[in-house]
# Entry
Amino acid sequence: MLQDKSPPKDLRFFLNLIFNWLQLRYIFESRRRTTFLLFDILISVVSYWAAFALRFDIEIPQQEVTLLKVTLPLIVVLRIPCFIYFGLYETLWQYVGIPELFSIIGAATAGSVLLLIVSFFLGFQLHPRSVLVMDWLMLIMVLSGVRILFRVAVEKWRDLHRVRPKRVLIIGAESTAEFLVMEFLKQPSLGYQPIGLIDDDPKKLGARIRGVKVIGKISQLTSVARAKKAEEVIIVLPKASREEIKQIIKSCRDFHLICRVVSQEFFLLPSKIRPLKLRPVNISDLLGRELIQESFAGIEDFFRGKCVLITGAGGSIGSELVKMICQTHPQELILIDNSENNLHEISKELEGRYSNIEIYHYLLDITNGAEMEKIFVKHGPKAVYHAAAYKHVPLVELHFREGIINNVLGTKVIADLSFQYGVECFMLISTDKAIRPRSVMGATKRIAEIYVQSLKGGQTRFLTVRFGNVFDSSGSVVSVFRKQIEEGKPLTVTHPEARRYFMDVSEAVFLILQATILGSDSEIFVLDMGKPIKIVDLAHDLAQLVGIKPENVPIEYIGLRPGDKLDEELELNGEQAILTKHKKIKIWKSKQNTPVSIRQQIDELIDMVEQGCSRNLAVQKLKDIVPEYEPWRLTDELVPLDLISVQGTKVSDENLC
# Structure
């Protein structure tokens, strides 16, 4: 019978305890850390021997040689835990600094003191004091010197292989410009060398910001760029007009300069998590909208430690809500979407970035009341953002039943559950197409607004925010135009006078979050969308951005599509504008009372649609609930598919070109 020669369990437990205490597993998991530990042990041995050799002028007496041989293994055994305990292998050598040098001094001192104590208790002959002092000094010098030389060598190598920084002009001489200059000078790895500032304020001309001089006005951009041999331009003008931005872009293109802007997120997020993101100028920069530069503190206070539920979490607005709310330290985020791809994309984007937030994903239809209720019971959300909706106007005209079920029943399900389970705040994301709607989509969103306003008497604040189009959302007019330009096709515009409201998605979401902390109950917030923009002007601007002269851009007018309006509006007759403390947010207070029968009317509408009613009956019922709804047609004839596509490219209602 074979005997088990493995160590006893108690001994194995003891060895494992020692192994873990010394963090040996951590060391030996990495070949780099193991190599550095062995190297430091070798230095310790050589330093100890050298101390004896120096003390006795190389001729070490036999008695001291015996002491050296006896204590050398002890040196190794005692130095290893000291090196590990003081964290000598937790820092990459190329980043060694003062804290690491103090750690080396601590490790060397602890090792020398332990050597004295252990030698005394083991009855070894006492070391000459000069040997211990020299060993201590040499060990510190060699361990520190090797690391410093390594860092210097790495930095020299990087200097030799570093790409030459780009010479950049910064347009704007305010606090953001100061931040950019400071970061560029502090972090050469960013690859930018600020060579001058451009600003129209005559008081700033000749002044310096962090050593960089204000050297001209915007009108002098081309001549300054030529004199300074600039390669790129960065625009930092929070209050720049549309025409100013267009003129800067034109000057940059004429002089073959790359033109970039600071991402909108920089102005919206708290300074401690503010990202320095530079991106090429895009169509949203031509809005001429003043950038928001306000405190994020109130928003952070509201969301901190809460569970937040977002429907349509993978869409354009929903995903931006998710990303911005993640910056406010919520406890849980519940993401709901019925699009597998959208939910996958936002999940991958969040993966590993917010380890302090519990994030749950549900691939689910919001009209599934039973499953939605399980989520409310399990997580108990305190804030709900309802961004899920069918928004493509021509497609909802074609699939009117699905549009009504999703936009009306879906809103009712989520709002009712919010009321039932005491959610603190429910926010409906609405649209300017709900105002005097011409489309089924617009009518369904108006019904959603009315229903949400009707819910009173519980713990929940029911709020609605209404705004127009956001740039570069999926299927938006901008992406359609961009694709048509790439394919060399004419840009398709519905009508020469068609106008729409536009804003940047990050600005829209920031204002939605601001409205959350402003609202009391049953209010409709309307975001300041600025002036409406002609779609044909948008087409010309986009062409100009890619270097095509507006006069060389072929435009094809295809006529208004099913459900389209020539102009969008932001207020209903009978609504009164009330200013808030935020200049870009107003409250539209309705003078009309919400109909008492709204719940019954919605139930009747849903029953009709679920039973497969005709378009005529569905439209008439929508009109009964929303009297200002003026349907574009009242027949059972289906919308021809060729009317809702343009040369094979699906056109989104989000910008209703």
Summary: The chain is about 45% helix and 15% strand.
